[in-house]
Specification:
Elements lengths: L1 H17 L9 E2 L12 E3 L5 E3 H4 L4 E6 L7 H14 L9 E6 L6 H15 L8 E4 L3 H11 L1 E2 L1 E3 L3 E3 L3 E5 L5 E6 L5 H12 L8 H7 E4 L4 E4 L1 H32 L1
Parallel strand pairs: 4-5, 5-6
Antiparallel strand pairs: 1-7, 2-3, 4-10, 8-9, 10-11, 12-13
């Protein structure tokens, strides 16, 4: 029994070793579930007013980190978000709210206002004024926010950035409760994220599977299969299972000889 236990411990440790590279993220998302985001962080809203997270996060809040001049994933992400907001049966601005925050400190409230108006129209509902806010901030605030949310990006040339895409849900106390990846979202998942956040309950996502089986491709701005990691994991599992089989078979043969 001890040998079998050691084998399983070996497999678990080996899987962790295979996954060690993901701890040092340069571009991508590292889940910070249950972390509390600083409420004193200050942003500019679309009317150029200064607001803090403590003031505006008073209900379940779904955050999208984007930059408005993005030529890549930001527009599909916001389009997908707008589409699912129009379909969900929960009341945006009443039961929950949305924040789209630019991580490019060069972008202005004027630009945020433009995008805010466009996406409010896309949702197609009679929304309360602050149901879906678009915010900007200085570089220091952005760095603190993105670090707190586990969102890592990198400059690409003069104007663009390499980054991943996700929706991040905060509870009314600014606790991180869920991550949703990609640019296509389901009404059920949005609803569940709001319900969980209202209860201050976090929900792990398939990010751990993504972390193991996928890697972020900055050039394509998408997740691609990480074949090296997958092959290594399969080999380790195969060795562990085969070793377990040999031990069990050996014991079975010994028992037969004794009897």
């Amino acid at each position: 029994m001890k040998k079998i236990t050691y084998i399983f411990l070996y497999i678990i440790l080996s899987l962790n070793l295979v996954n060690l590279n993901s701890k040092e993220i340069e571009i991508g998302i590292d889940e910070k579930l249950d972390s509390i985001v600083d409420g004193d962080l200050k942003f500019f809203d679309a009317d150029s007013n200064v607001v803090t997270l403590r003031e505006i996060v008073n209900k379940p809040t779904i955050i999208s980190l984007v930059y408005f001049n993005c030529p890549g994933i930001c527009t599909p992400l916001l389009d997908g978000f707008a589409d699912v907001l129009a379909k969900t049966d929960m009341k945006l601005g009443v039961e929950y709210q949305a924040l789209s925050i630019s991580f490019d400190h060069n972008e202005t409230p004027y630009l945020a206002a433009k995008w805010q108006n466009n996406y409010r129209k896309l949702v197609g509902k009679d929304l309360p004024k602050n149901a879906w806010r678009f915010l900007t901030a200085d570089s220091v605030t952005i760095k603190k926010l993105t670090k707190a949310l586990g969102f890592y990006f990198k400059k690409d040339g003069k104007k663009d950035y390499l980054h991943a895409g996700a929706l991040i849900t905060l509870s009314p106390t600014r606790r991180i409760t869920r991550y949703q990846f990609g640019d296509k979202f389901l009404p059920f998942n949005i609803k569940m994220s709001v319900v969980e956040a209202s209860r201050e309950v976090s929900s792990p996502t398939i990010n751990k599977l993504l972390d193991l089986c996928f890697k972020y491709d900055p050039s394509g701005r998408a997740y691609v299969l990480n074949l090296t990691r997958i092959i290594g994991t399969v080999m380790l599992l195969t060795v562990g299972i085969f070793a377990t089989f040999l031990i069990v078979k050996g014991r079975s043969n010994k028992n037969r000889e004794i009897s």
